[in-house]
Write a structure and sequence with these properties.
260 residues; alpha/beta; 8 strands; globular; binds zinc ion
Length: 260
């Protein structure tokens, strides 16, 4: 069984087609998926999915790309994270790709998420884009290693992966791993310890080869796992078994669904 550790099933591209999406998850042995929260306004929809489906989980957080949304304080995050189907805090982190001025509020918001994660004991889902140095520094300064988490949709070098691993974090690879020009990411996927790797789609974004350019969906996490198997000289079954075990080790509040 595979797990899609990061998707956005509440986004309209996907939420309109849930029946066929669930059917393709079954056909591809993708047993569960995590619906990732990106802001508080849309969180009820994310949670509703997790409440309605035993094999879906939710996370709560405000993504660093959202500037003009309700700003979460620690207490609010802690309160929302109490729900048993909320398995992590995030996605949170720093994204300097679009906000080249590196605004201070991104770092403040990130620190609040880390503090809430430590209080709740629920790990972090970290979004890091063009911001590796600050992201790692803040994780270190806030002592995020006690709760850990995942560097989601990893697009950095092995050196950055190594530092995140040293902090106690897991590394999650997305469909980008299947792209021919993703040389540094492939290297990180080869060198990271197998017991610290997760797989994800980040759907509806970033469809893997051979679906590149089309809307992505959780079933396609299988292509990420196949690429990982290829890069490490393992079978798909070995990668599925390892990454699924890693998922449930990290996200202790997620219970394994009963297989039909
Ligand atoms: Zn992200
Ligand atoms: Zn995401």
């Amino acid at each position: 069984m595979l797990v899609d550790s990061h998707c956005h099933l509440d986004f309209p591209d996907l939420s309109r087609r849930l029946t066929e999406i669930f059917e393709r998850m079954r056909q591809n042995d993708v047993g569960c998926a995590v619906c990732i929260g990106v802001n508080l306004e849309d969180f009820p929809g994310v949670l509703a999915l997790a409440e309605a489906h035993p094999n879906l989980y939710a996370t709560v957080g405000v993504h660093p790309e959202y500037a003009d949304v309700e700003e979460p304080d620690e207490a609010r995050l802690i309160e929302l994270a109490r729900h048993p189907k909320v398995i992590a805090i995030g996605e949170t982190g720093l994204d300097y790709h679009w906000q080249k001025d590196r605004p201070e509020w991104q770092r403040d918001r990130f620190r609040r998420h880390i503090r809430a994660a430590i209080v709740t004991g629920k790990p972090l889902v970290v979004h890091m884009r063009d911001s590796a140095e600050d992201t790692l520094r803040i994780l270190k300064e806030e002592g995020a290693g006690v709760v850990g988490g995942v560097m989601h949709c990893f697009t950095e070098t092995w050196e950055v992966a190594r530092q995140a691993l040293d902090l106690g974090f897991h590394i999650s690879f997305s469909g980008i791993l299947t792209f021919k020009n993703a040389i540094a990411i492939k290297e990180a996927a080869q060198k990271s310890p197998l017991e610290r790797i997760l797989v994800e789609t980040d759907s509806p974004y970033l469809a893997p080869a051979p679906h590149r350019g089309k809307p992505n969906e959780p079933a396609f996490v299988r292509h990420v796992a196949e690429e990982l198997a290829h890069l490490r000289g393992l079978s798909l079954e070995q990668v599925a078994e390892a990454t699924t075990a890693n998922f449930f080790n990290l996200f202790k509040h997620a219970s394994r669904p009963i297989q039909p």
